[in-house]
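[step 3/7] fold_predict: job queued, chain A
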Amino acid sequence: ERDGARRRARASVVSSPIVNVRWRQLAWLSIAELLALSLWFSASAVLPALVREWRLGDVARAWLTNAVQLGFVAGAVLSAALNLADLVSSRTLIAASAALGAATTIVFVLVAHGPATAVPIRFLTGVALAGVYPPGIKLAASWFKSHRGLAVGVLVGGLTLGSGSPHAIAAI
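[step 4/7] structure written:
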């Protein structure tokens, strides 16, 4: 009798509207992370075309690829130093950072004509992505006291798919 009551209580919690809202929020956050993190390797995916058009050597190719990672590290350190994750709403930080990342990618397409302009723009893309990935993990972890590992795993899966999507599109 006691086990049956526990099972019914657990079933009502799992199907409660609050829990369903959290999973829906996680799905939307994962989609947002997927789309935003697709910017990470967008230039790398078209690197063969850039090599031909800009006549890039090995060093320039490496800088173009590594600029995003260096920007991400700089952005994460800056965000931590300024305590942005606690001063700014995570939703606002993610949205603004994703918009900045999209803007830098548009600027890359319109302005970059070689490594001298492309590398700094890609660095700024990395800085922007530092405002998307860590706050997204913070949100997912704060929404789920139980099933936290699964929730973070779903989010990491979304951003991993996002990071790989430019290469998939380039392959097609």
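[step 5/7] annotate
The mean pLDDT is 86.
Residues 67 and 120 are 7 Å apart (CA to CA).
exit 0
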